[in-house]
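BUG: 3D viewer hangs when loading the predicted structure for this chain

Environment: internal workstation, default settings.
Expected: structure renders.
Actual: progress bar stalls at 90%.

Input used:
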Amino acid sequence: MARYYPPRFLFRRHEILRRVRSGRRFLEVGAGALRLARDLVGFFSSGVLLEPAPQAKQLWLSLPENIRERLDLQLTSLESFATSELFDCVISCEVMEHVSDDLSFAQRLHELLRPGGQLILSVPAGMRYWSLGDRVAGHLRRYEKEGLTHLLSQAGFSDIQIIGYGFPFVNLLRIPSWLHALMNRHVLEQGDPAQLTRESGINLIAGLPSWLGLFVNPITVWPFCRVAALFNTFHLSDGFLVVAIKPG
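Structure tokens produced before the viewer hung:
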């Protein structure tokens, strides 16, 4: 049976895999449920995955051995990650909006890239889309194109390209996301943004029937991804994908 993937992830994945440059080694910051990592091994010899949620270990162990042996999972955050290694590509999806000092976060991503290396980053777009769902997910902000470009320029990146991926389909997904947030709004009473971030970072899609994978998977969503790509430059989506370079 086909594996189920969250629809928003599939639209983002489609655009990432079109743009990622092959290399020797990559770093993924906030690897979540390791869905993207499974694809990235097709472009790189090996990679390092940073994911502080302890559930990631079991997901890593469930990977096929030939994939698992090429992925070094570290149960830590970017702030606690210590290395002298430089990577060909650094990828971070849906993480920076949780970080209070996003400039320092972007600068650290820059430091971890080799000269000429590629950054791939995704963040929620447009404060006009701010909702209860953002609060429940532990978001601190949404980004506008101009501000995001300025931030990454300050961090040292060049050749910054920003697309609004998945429109109009990801915008329609805001309806079930809002309903989910409404049912889980009690978590806001905990007053623990870090806990909200941890829960947001690794969605195990618990409770969803496995047969959904027959209808929601990379093959079935591909035609919709192709349609959405026609709107990439209009910035109508509620999600941004960024590709940038560390000057060599």
